[in-house]
Amino acid sequence: MTGILWNLGAFIVALGILVAVHEYGHFWVARRNGVKVERFSIGFGKPIWRRTGRDGTEYVVAMIPLGGYVKMLDGRVDEVPPELADQAFNNKSVWARMAIVVAGPMANFLFAVFAFWLMFLIGVPSVKPVVRDVVPESPAAVAGVQPGMQITAINGNDILTWEDVNFSLIGSIGAEQTVITVQNDSGRQQQLAVPLTRWQFDPDSESPITALGLMPEGPVATLTLEQVMADGAGEQAGLQSGDQITQANGEILRDWNHFVALVQSSPEQPMELVVLRDGQRLDLTLTPALRETNRQAVGYVGLAPAVLPVDERYRFELTYGPLEAAWHGMERTWELTVLTFNMIGKLLTGIVSVDNLSGPISIAKGAGASAGFGLVYFLSFMALVSVNLGIINLLPLPVLDGGHLLFYMVEAVTGRPVPEKIQELGFRIGAALLVLLMGLALFNDIGRL
Length: 449
Fold this sequence. Notes:
Elements: H1 2-32, E1 37-52, E2 58-72, H2 94-122, E3 124-127, E4 131-134, H3 139-143, E5 150-154, E6 157-158, H4 162-171, E7 177-183, E8 189-195, H5 208-211, E9 214-216, E10 220-228, H6 233-236, E11 244-248, E12 251-252, H7 256-264, E13 271-277, E14 280-286, E15 289-292, E16 297-300, E17 303-308, E18 315-318, H8 322-349, H9 360-373, H10 375-394, H11 401-414, H12 420-448
Helix pairs in contact: 1-2, 1-9, 1-10, 2-8, 2-10, 2-11, 8-10, 9-10
């Protein structure tokens, strides 16, 4: 219950900030263009706080924290007194209306730059992208990647951390190959072409890094148990925190990943374990529960290993001065923007499954997890969501900013507004598509739970 409340609180804080930033973009540009703003609302539904400012705008915080809006004086919606006609949104030039509409998404991109700038000023705890091991016969192994190599570039883009590797690999989804530049202990660099034709991964259970066959240098999971979940298959088998698992089905376990692979391939099938507890050998029978993923049924036992910290040789603080941090903040925002547009294109063409769409539940879990790790990670999470919020609002759906922008662009070219009947039809179609998309994302969230 505590975890749910933490996730919910972090979600409300993150979304509240991002919505406020988005709506303030509309508000600020509208005021600069002489438009009267009647209400600035964070959230929908019944107001829980309201105040009228000296500027005549009513500022509201409402019950449902899933968005917000800026209500402007508009002759298409309300009757406008003659003395206020020049302050109505619909009476402004098409260029002013376009600027007001696009200001919201632009504010989200600027916030992402600010969040990354602040993150790089504080310093990001990072791990060098050094390969600890390579899975035999995996795409990485076929390409010739060897343990001990450090990844310095992917497809010509410089790589500093494993997070950079992750983003680059996600951007390579659907490609036939990706070119990795690696460096060995002597400093010699070489380029390796990694085949991706058979590369697939389930984002709910693995990362693109491990799915490619790369085992990063980082925290090392041991075969000693740190946590046994209540009522899980592990507890039912008699396992306890502190136990060391040495064998499964007669196989001597190499590491935690070896054990995980055996468990996942044995749903609802008994496994004979050899366990050391306080120096004494125990023989236990573990029957993994069945868990459905997007691709197959896998075993699940509810066990967490004790983890050894990252070797100091591979740890470093990624930090920059104010000007460098600003540049890298813009660079990271641009990379995320390009990656997001690429993923939308791959969703539309079927290269990426719609099962990967996430909704408010996944966002809440991400907010809670990142907030739990610290301010730097929470800033990174908010920057990621802010970029996505900006891009989604630019999509040419009539109920979104991008749809309004499309209508105004047509008006700018033709010299006359799009007929109201066409706009109304577009709004209905856009609303239906948006509800369908949100429903699918929520369905995916529930499936992940």
